[in-house]
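Milestone M4 deliverable, item 7.
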Amino acid sequence: MKLDVLIVGQGIAGTIASYQLINKGYSVGIIDNAKQHLSSQLASAIINPLSGKKWNQVAQFDKFLRDSLSTYKGMEQLINQPLLQPKNHLYFFQSKEEQLVAKQQIKPEWFTISEEKAFKNINSPYGYAQIKHCYSIAQDILFEKWKQYIAQHYYIENTLFEYQELKHINNQWHYKDIQSNAIIFCEGINAINNPYFKDLPFTKNRGDVLYVNIAELDNNYIYSFKDRLVPIKNQLFWLGSNHTWNYDNLNKDTQWADKCLHDLQEQLPYGIQLIDHRVAERPTTVGQKPLALIHGYHPNLGLLNGLGTRGYLQASTYSKILLEQMQL
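Output delivered:
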């Protein structure tokens, strides 16, 4: 089988890169080990213009947003499914100090502040901010429908990539029965073991995520309390997450889960039903800077990884940068 580009991994990086290549007219194939602990599929999957708790705008947000909207809307047309949902983001201050920090940075075009003690029956003793220009991404549809699209029109193999089977012959990459002009590694946490890209500034952490049903909560908003609450479908919400840097297993952190549910219940007057508790291992780079790299000796070998918590916002831009570097 001959391909223009073989992609290893179908998390957010591989999904976006494959779409951009197809949009340019290239033939693609994907090899993806659909691991249970895939971090992209357990992320909050939102676009948020603000960074951290200092209320600063994400650098180059306008460019990231423009690239993201173009990509997701293009994918919507191919899979005939909605992916983007505009949502205002309600951030409930947890202290007076938090509110004061936000007031010092207030920009009405990005967020407004209310000192009301409640929002639609939600307890808000320190008021809340309403953040504009936010979106949630239907990640379950994104990954599943894109996988189906690739399987129908191109090629996808759901197996573990075997590095020892990869050969470079006459400027072509040969992997088993596949011959490809270029390869892009988008393999998430597995990149730590990639022999072609050694000594990268990778580290890793693990995170827990809860899925809860809240029948009476308005699902037209993203909510931030002590933890973030993101509507997924109907009354199902994503709740999380934590970051654990020292660990030796991927067992569920039930102590964290109990506290997370308790904290949420203190602010919500509605019943909360726990549906699921999942754990993922995340690739992280020093300084949390994404990696869009080409190999030092092989310009047709690339890597896209380390997109982090803003992956759903930044993936389109960094994928474009990598493809330009690879002259694709």
